[in-house]
Amino acid sequence: MTTDLSKTATDLFETMRATNPLVHCITNFVAMNYAANVLLAAGASPAMVHTPEESGEFAAIAGALTVNIGTLSPHWVEGMIAAAKSANDASKPWVLDPVAHFATGYRRDVIAKLLELNPTVIRGNASEIIALAGGQSAGQGVDSGDPVEQAEEAARSLATSQKVVVAVTGEVDFVTDGTRSVRIAGGSPLMPKITAMGCALTALVGAYCAIARDQAFEATVAALTNFAVAGGIAANSANGPASFMTAFVDGLHNLDAATFHQNARIEAL
Ligand SMILES: Nc1ncnc2c1ncn2[C@@H]1O[C@H](COP(=O)(O)OP(=O)(O)OP(=O)(O)O)[C@@H](O)[C@H]1O
Ligand SMILES: Cc1ncsc1CCO
Ligand SMILES: [Mg+2]
Known about the structure:
The protein is of the alpha/beta class and 269 residues long. The chain has helices at residues 2-19, 32-42, 52-61, 74-89, 105-115, 126-132, 152-162, 197-211, 216-235, 241-254, 257-263, and strands at residues 22-26, 45-48, 64-68, 94-97, 121-125, 165-169, 173-176, 181-185, 265-268. The chain starts with a helix and ends with a strand.
């Protein structure tokens, strides 16, 4: 099982390089530049398109859509809803990043509306996933206050009730579709010290979903493994968070399939 998932993830990694999928990203002001560079380095083609005047039209063209609620405003929310509806109509996968959705009434309203539009994948940190499943999390803002293990049951129940793939990230990541579950190890403790690392990962989950449209679970596992492997390599040459940011983009760009497969640490549960 472990070997199969590593092989599938490696195959998808190679497909990414060969096909350069177009990914529609509606992300936050903090993440926009870094997420776009991460996607380019990983072999995808990002487009940051948020205004409702065009977001619906663009979602139908792109291979996948990603929606991140990090820096909300009403006009952007209209753009997110139009894009998600259009992705659904065009049978395109879409990925939701529920940044700090529990923090304010406005965020709670917006996340409820987006959840009604049936995302294909939800990717968040442990506090976000615990709160999304109705539990009490220790999170206050965009950073997690809870360990991933504590979010595993919440992730399973959310995956089952919403019929969605759920990815919980942290020191060891957890992915479930409600039936199958895996843990993915690797990466670096420097990763949560860089803002928007998770937002960039959500965008990459979208890229993998674009190339594996009917395999959202496998696509999500591949994206998280790509981050874990490139993160582990980048940490070897970084002196701290700032140099890690650039080493990570280089690590993604320079990664080859053999190294990906060798360093993938996917445990099927
Ligand atoms: N302690 C750690 N060790 C190794 N990897 C980590 C650690 N913490 C986070 N990561 C990795 O960092 C990436 C981002 O995950 P994280 O859970 O920090 O996202 P996030 O909290 O949503 O981030 P942000 O909101 O700042 O974008 C994932 O690839 C995850 O595996
Ligand atoms: C710091 C921050 N604030 C809103 S979104 C964001 C990026 C990390 O989620
Ligand atoms: Mg986040």
